[in-house]
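Schema walk-through. Below, the input block comes first and the output block second. Nothing else is stored per chain. Lengths vary across the set, and this one has 371 residues.
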Amino acid sequence: MTSISSLPYASTNTAAYGSPTAPAPPTAPQVETAATSPAATNAVNVTLSDAAKAALKGQAEAPTLANITAAARAAIDKLLAQANTKVALIDGRATIDLGGLDRRSLFAVASNAGGGFTATEQTLASATTAFQFEEALAGPVAASRITRDYAAIYKAGLAYLDKAGPEEKATAKWTAQRDVLAKGLQQATATPGVMPDLPNDPVAAYIAAHEEGVPAVGPRDIQKVAGDVRAALDAQYARAADPDAPISLADFDDRALAAIALDKGGLFSDAEVRAARMEIRDRNNDRMTEAYGSNVAAGSSGTLGRDLITRYASMSAEEREAQGWTPELYARLVQNYETSQKLASMAGGAAGGLYGAGTSAGPASLMDYLT
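--- output ---
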């Protein structure tokens, strides 16, 4: 998968880092039982104490910003103590991991709510938030390289933004960013396969910052292609109503199919590898049938060899391997093509002179072509 890098710190899945504490559970309710008559069957009246009522009310209400801030401060202090340091960053590198704080807590630290956080702690909280946003985009962006489904990226970005707390949602930055993502989703939905073009687009900025592109010589690394294909397949499975339904590889290009069929990184199941190989076989059959039919219709067989040679030259090494195009096969194609061209040229020379009418050199012999 596409790797996302920000400030170098550990995995965000760190349960030991703590999070804002939840209100204490209510005390046990006081129970009064009243038997009103012999016919009554265990009539029970429950009366909550004042302490229990207060606890239940606290559970129903969201924690205040002051509560969030205090819990975040305590969590950071604990992390600093565990790391045996008093600063969150040293030479720009993270000494603690704030991935265990929730979104609202990170915003409290980044915005220095209550004025209790250092500049380095604010920087680290901002970087952690940015990293989590990138994590939300990483999978859909990888899949889009195969499917060109840009709408899914904007949906993921909006889903991440909507998890913000009320304090963050009240900022102009959050409002502007969400507005851009909403417009991006609208454009991507209206024109599938076309990347939206919007100013200050965080999705476009992420893609530009992490797009590896195609090197000047050679195609994109097959392992990176495989990671993108894996993400695309996982997204396809997630959308499928029936988890046992066969996957569709119709929208995958030849290099994506080669990544599955070769499975050099062990990312794909046996069923997925078989499906990719079958798709490659069917495409090859269709292309050969089409090419042969076009040559027959044109009354020429020479262009078929030329088309096959051109096709081989345009493929990457992995595509050739997956499709069974060996160097020996290519050499035979070239030899057959050259022979057919020589024979065709000789036939033309016999009819009207290889070097043109009226020349004294005359046509070359068959031996000349074969040697």
